[in-house]
Write a structure and sequence with these properties.
Number of domains: 2
Distance between the termini: 22 Å
Strand content: over 45%
Largest sheet: 6 strands, antiparallel, barrel
CATH topology of the largest domain: Thrombin, subunit H
Order of helices and strands: HHEEEEEEHEHHEEEE
CATH class of the largest domain: Mainly Beta
Number of strands: 11
Radius of gyration: 20 Å
Length: 220
């Protein structure tokens, strides 16, 4: 449900250069329709995207790539940022730079462990910057039912005016990437809100942690 958050986050200019890139071959396949898979040849990867070689030129559309990272299979959705003509095994081919559109936290964790060579990623390894989300990004990346659930948590704690869960005012979202708890990756989000009562304004910053499905939610 929330797997597009990492793709959006990793593609931001603030974070793109922060993620390590490794030049390393890996097996891959791609699919335009999600049913038929064609071979691709992975040549590098980073926390923000992939470098692959494909034997045909593709239209500038999002598509799926399946990677084999030393026996660990993950599937990501990508968008081609650039491509150049090249050769492979004496035949014409195309080298693509692909940016993540969607990648789940578990797959992100597997990719980062493969890139860094670490068996375990800790919170201290999260080389990311907090990003203030625009209203359009919030609406696109955080489904309305889950967004309302987050705001309801604020309302229950008196950190949001009563009756404003569906249409809050003066609320901002800061997405903070991925953290690790007991070896499991979770999304991090901070919501800033305020309440005006008796002529006095009180401001709050509330931290949330949740999995891709949105079912496991912790208010910190």
């Amino acid at each position: 449900m929330l797997a597009e958050l990492i793709g959006w986050f990793a593609g931001r200019d603030e974070n793109r250069r922060r993620f390590p890139r490794v030049r390393k071959d890996y097996a891959a396949q791609y699919s335009i329709d999600g049913r038929t898979w064609q071979p691709a040849y992975g040549v590098d990867a980073s926390g923000g995207g992939l470098g692959v070689v494909i034997e045909k030129q593709l239209a500038a559309v999002t598509f799926d790539v399946r990677l084999d990272l030393d026996g660990k299979a993950i599937t990501v959705r990508v968008f081609p940022v650039w491509n150049v003509e090249t050769t492979r095994n004496g035949k014409r081919a195309y080298s693509y730079g692909l940016q993540f559109v969607r990648i789940g936290t578990d797959d992100w964790d597997a990719l980062m462990r493969w890139i860094t060579g670490k068996k375990t990623i800790t919170s201290e390894d999260d080389l990311v910057a907090t990003i203030r989300m625009r209203d359009g990004e919030i609406a696109k990346l955080i489904p309305a039912p889950f967004r309302e659930r987050l705001l309801a948590e604020l309302s229950q704690r008196g950190r949001l005016p009563p009756g404003s869960v569906k249409a809050p005012q003066d609320v901002t979202f800061d997405y903070c990437g991925v953290t690790h708890v007991a070896g499991r990756p979770f999304h991090k989000l901070t919501i800033h809100s305020k309440v005006l009562a008796n002529g006095r304004e009180t401001r709050y910053s509330t931290q949330f942690r949740f999995d891709d499905s949105g079912e496991e939610l912790v208010v910190l």
